[in-house]
Amino acid sequence: MAHYLGIDVGSVSTNLIIMDESGEVEEAVYIRTQGQPIKAVQEGLRLLNSRGHGKWDIRGVGTTGSGRQLAAVIAGADIVKNEITAHAVAAQKEVPDVRTVIEIGGQDSKIIILRDGVVTDFAMNTVCAAGTGSFLDQQANRLGIPIEEFGSYALRSKNPVRIAGRCAVFAESDMIHKQQLGYKIEDIIRGLCQALVRNYLNNVGKGKEILPRVVFQGGVAANVGMKAAFEEALGMEVYVPKYHHVMGALGAALLARDAGVEKTKFRGFQASDIEFAADSFECQGCSNHCEVVNIKMEGKVIARWGDRCNKWKVIEDSGAA
Amino acid sequence: MRKVSYPYLGNATITFQKLMKALGNDVVLPKRPTEETLSLGTKYAPEFACLPFKIVLGTYIEALEAGADTLVSTGGVGPCRAGLYTTLHEKILKSLGYDFEMITLEPPGRHLRDLIASIKKLVSKKLSIADYFRIGRFVWKELQLLDKAEKLSHKIRPLEVKKGETTRTYKKCAELIAQAQSYRDLVEIEREIELLYEKIEKKDIDPIKIGIVGEIYVVIEPAANLEIEEMLGDLGVYAERSMFLASYTFYNAVMDLFRMPGERDVKKLASPYFKEMCGGHGRESVGNAILFAKRGFDGVIQLSPFTCIPEIVAKSILPKVCAEYGIGFLPVTLDEQTGKEGLRTRVEAFVDLLAAKRKKKKMNLGKGDVVYGTLSGY
User: Fold this and answer.
1) Nearest Cα to Cα of residue B100 among B91, B113, B109, B111
2) Burial of B158 (0-12, 13-18, 19+ CB in 10 A)
3) N or C terminus: which one in chain A shows less Cβ crowding within 10 Å?
């Protein structure tokens, strides 16, 4: 049977999924990017390969996320898509009657509005990353609570404390202040969740008509405290899909399936053993001084980007994506 | 001899150089703004000044460092604070220790005497009436030609078969125009430009159409808007902006001289939503969005510098206007913090959205059917 590979390279996590023709997820891996997207993608491929033992016949590959171009070069992708479209496609697949998608990842938060199966509007955080995964991680760390339990602390609280949530830095100092005053940890955490939801709805969701069903996805959706805070603020049920943390990768795989690829550019799972490296140089061709990035495979340049004038775009054809 | 410099504004930079030379000045050609220009401007500008202010300030510093002793800029009338910017630029630069003269060209309608006095300062050799006529005719034609070459590039880029061919052709055209010395040269070049664009191999598709509205500097200068038009063209989109330099100069200087409201039709269209003038191009942004909708465009992108009040006012009105006319709307706010990748993600998603909408309209699908926004164009 034909299978499709979806890769989502984000700032915090790199996710890969294998999906069959009907759209069923067969395998999903979630790894930390840790600032090394090339390594993360290769590690993901290696993991998938060890779990699949070569039983998958990959017919198409899609990449998404902020590292989508890089991932596309490494794995050999047939389709490269922005994460907004990928998330919308995946949400629609999992919850066909979805009308609002709340997506919060490591550094990004976005809202996607769908009506009758078409994306009609979207917005992404622009000035602040308060409430995204990295910030919650950091707070859990500071309080000495495992991130997995962070949400359940919030659920235990009866009297949430009001936290200033407009900016991550101020939210943290306000939390510290409330701790010094002697408030209970669970009340502070619940207050923080409420503040972050307030911040999200005021900044990202501002002016958007939020109608049910609301789907909450991305890494932060695992946080039951955030889910509860959204339900409280919106006054409606918020649905967290099973594969909420790998929805971007699922969307990319779905897009690859529907792109009608005849022959995939997939390099095979062996791509995890190929040596990839990136280096950059400053072009002196004009006053722009563009920073041009070379992606090298076994020492040979296979892709290049960063130049504004496309002077460096053309590489001696080596079958690169 | 004066060593004149001025803000960089797309291709008009070259035309202005020729004009200044014809009037008998030496010119320090402003450089295309780079990251360094912006960091220079950001360093000395007030934090909440807008992006054009910072870019222009950086450009001035670079020009003064290169030996300019006269800076020429345009003024304006409120309530947009851009009218005060020249004065503020001058104060900042003088406090940094630069020695130069700032010459402000005010709009002729209200400050005709000031304008004439300013222009007189810039005329450094004896010219006859016939000379003025010749120079005027040449400059005007050149501006129009530059606009024409650019408009053609926007039209053809989404249709090109070989990626990058249009951009190359456009650069060639700009170079040809830059080399022109007389009106006759320009007439010949005009024909050549048309031929060059005709030669590009084109696909036969109906591309997604997006109109661009917003504040003039960030709309016109690609260095300020992260080359959004090229980005759209590469995605297979036909992008048309609401403002070009030649028509803008005509409406706001010539019409103003005769006390005629510039862009009257655009303002009239906006009036049900936007009665008062708020300075800048706020009202024009709304009016132009409606104009695009009426012409059958799929969506509108608004470009505005961060903290730009006229555009903020327009931004709060535009979603309603676009919803009423059934077209997509994407606001883009630009400042020195804006990254190109983030912008690309949003623009790509916006194009997907418009494509899905169009597809749905065509297929007339029922509820529950999924429409993905992938187009054949890219």
Assistant:
1) B91
2) buried
3) N
Give yes or no for residue B111 having a pLDDT over 80: no
**Is B361 in the A-facing interface, judged by CB distances under 8 Å?**
no
Chain centroid to Cα B68, Å, comes to 25
Contact state of A81 with B348 under an 8 Å Cβ cutoff: yes
Name the residue facing A84 among B167, B349, B357 (closest C-beta).
B349
Q: Note the residue count of chain B.
A: 378
What pLDDT digit, counting tens, does each position of B139-155 carry?
989 988 998 998 898 88
Residue B198 and residue B177: Cα distance in Å, rounded?
18
For the beta carbon of residue B274, count every other beta carbon within 10 angstroms: 21
pLDDT in tens, B188-225: 999 999 999 999 999 888 899 999 999 988 998 888 89
Q: Which of B103, B127, B87 is nearest to B5 (CA)?
A: B103
Confirm or reject contact between B344 and chain A (CB < 8 A).
yes
Q: From chain A, pick out residues whose CB is under 8 angstroms from the CB of B157.
A: none
Contact state of A287 with B31 under an 8 Å Cβ cutoff: yes
Distance from CA of A84 to the nearest CA of B (A): 6
Question: Would you identify the CATH topology of the domain A96-240?
Answer: Nucleotidyltransferase; domain 5 (3.30.420)
pLDDT in tens, B162-185: 888 898 899 899 999 999 989 999
- Fold category of B3-122 in CATH: Rossmann fold (3.40.50)
How many Cβ atoms from other residues are within 10 Å of residue A153's Cβ?
Answer: 22
Q: Are B322 and B304 in contact (CB under 8 A)?
A: no
**Closest chain B residue by Cα to residue A88:** B372
- Which sequence spans correspond to the domains of chain A? 3-89+248-272, 96-240, 275-320
d(CA A223, CA A133): 10
Min Cα–Cα distance to chain A from B369, Å: 6
- CATH architecture group of domain B206-378: 3-Layer(aba) Sandwich (3.40)
Residue B316 corresponds to which amino acid?
S
Cα separation values, A296 from A3, A74, A277, A300, B300, Å: 28, 10, 5, 5, 39
Report yes or no: B1 and B36 within 8 Å, Cβ to Cβ: no
CATH classification (class only), A3-89+248-272: alpha beta
Distance CA B178, CA B233 (A): 24
Cβ-contact B187, B262 below 8 angstroms: no
Strands A13-20 and B237-241, how do they pair? unpaired
pTM for the model stands at: 0.88
Residue B162 forms contact with A (CB below 8 Å): no
To 10 degrees, what angle do helices A224-234 and A185-203 make? 60
pLDDT tens-place string over residues A45-99: 999 999 988 889 999 999 999 999 999 999 999 999 999 999 999 999 999 999 9
Are A207 and B353 in contact (CB < 8 Å)?
Answer: no
